[in-house]
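user: can you give me the structure for this one chain? C-alpha cells are fine.
assistant: on it. calling the predictor now.
[tool input]
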Amino acid sequence: MPDVAYILAVLAIVFTITLALRAIPFALLRTLRGSAAVAQLAVWMPVGILAILALTALHGTITADPHARLYALLAVAVTAGVHLASGRRTILSVGIGTAVYVVLVNAF
C-alpha cells in the first residue's frame, strides 16, 4: 500500500492540474471577449455541433435500415420547422423531431 504522503502528493498534483485546466479557458476568454472570431464561434459552434451529431445519427440510421431514410428526412424537416417556428428553442425542436422519428419508425 502506498504511503499516505505519496497519496496526498498525487491528489494535490491532480487537483492543481485539474483546476488549472478548468480556469485557463476562462482567463483567456476574458481577454478575447471583444474578438470578432469569438463572436462568430459563439454563433456557429452550436449549429455545427448539432449538425455533426445529426449527420452521425442519420448515417447510422440510414445505413442500418434503408427504409428509414424517408422517416429520417421527415423528422429532420419537422425538427427544422419546429426550430424556426418556436423561436429557435433547440430542446423543444430536437425533442419533437425525435418523437416524430420514433413514431414513424415504430408505426410503419
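assistant: here you go. The helical segments are 4-32, 36-64, 69-85, 90-107. The chain has four helices and no strands.
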